Amino acid sequence: MFGYVVVNEQNSIVFLDGNEEFKTIFQSLIQSEITSRKSDLDSASSGVGSSTCTEEQESSLDHFKKPNVVFNSSEISHILLPLILLYRSTSEKTKDPITEMSSQFGTISISKFYHNYLVLVFANDDRKRIEVSQTIEHTIATLFGPLIAFCHTDLTTVKKPKEHLACALTRKLSYSPKC
Question: Spans of biased composition, class Polar residues?
Answer without folding.
Answer: 42-54
